[in-house]
Design the sequence.
């Protein structure tokens, strides 16, 4: 073994310092160089169309744009939602809605005084805004998720397009329906509301000539798991009357009548 020479050989403490320096140098050689962290590694920020900075604990303004396809002589439209995004809870309150031609800068309609509270995630993914033909006239209307509780009793704010005036109007008669489903083939709308865990009411409406007409109501009232009383009412001589009432035993898959 070749004896150590130079500064390391002068004393025992010096030899220990030399050995430590040698170990550090060897470790540096064995460690691969780490590339600088790129911006792609940073967590993605929520996709908000226009958010103003705010102090901690304050709300910030935000907006979201959604497009309505053109139809006939109606051009493509842009619906802009303006609201407030809570910095602490990520809760959203939509306060204003504006509608403009996609080729124009200024809106031709504006609705103020809104208080819709859709989940932020539903706004960012587009699930809080739907374009669909709700009155079955061939033109797409739209609706905004207004209340989204933990259960199934979802409420929407609805706007219908009038081709004669080339404008939209709020449809209060549709706003009153819970979780409505639209059936263009039959031109009917079905609304389902759950009252607690044991009672579900489903109503079916005809929607023609701008009017909603109730054509069927079914009520399920559970007395035990898998067992419920079904009561069906339909219009008879201008009044809703019970036309069917029976006990239903659900199959193992949970399917019954209704």
Sequence:
């Amino acid at each position: 073994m070749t004896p150590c020479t130079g500064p390391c050989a002068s004393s025992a403490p010096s030899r220990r310092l030399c050995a430590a320096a040698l170990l550090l140098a060897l470790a540096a050689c064995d460690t691969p160089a780490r590339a600088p962290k790129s911006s792609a590694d940073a967590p993605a920020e929520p996709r908000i169309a226009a958010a103003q900075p705010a102090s901690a604990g304050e709300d910030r303004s935000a907006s979201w744009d959604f497009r309505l396809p053109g139809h006939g002589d109606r051009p493509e439209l842009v619906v802009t939602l303006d609201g407030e995004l809570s910095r602490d809870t990520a809760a959203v309150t939509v306060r204003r809605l504006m509608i403009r031609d996609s080729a124009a800068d200024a809106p031709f309609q504006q609705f103020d005084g809104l208080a819709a509270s859709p989940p932020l995630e539903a706004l960012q993914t587009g699930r809080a805004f739907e374009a669909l033909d709700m009155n079955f006239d061939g033109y797409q209307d739209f609706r905004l998720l207004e209340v989204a509780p933990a259960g199934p009793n979802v409420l929407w704010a609805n706007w219908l397009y009038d081709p004669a005036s080339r404008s939209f109007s709020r449809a209060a008669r549709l706003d009153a329906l819970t979780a409505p489903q639209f059936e263009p083939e039959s031109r009917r709308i079905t609304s389902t509301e759950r009252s607690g865990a044991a009672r579900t009411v489903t109503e079916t409406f005809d929607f023609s000539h701008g009017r909603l007409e109730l054509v069927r109501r079914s009520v399920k009232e559970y007395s035990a798991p898998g067992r419920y009383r079904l009561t069906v009412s339909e219009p008879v001589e201008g009044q809703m009357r019970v036309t069917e009432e029976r006990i239903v035993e659900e199959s193992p898959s949970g399917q019954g009548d209704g």
The first strand starts at residue 59 and ends at 68. The chain has two domains: 49-176, 182-258. The two ends are 94 Å apart (CA to CA).
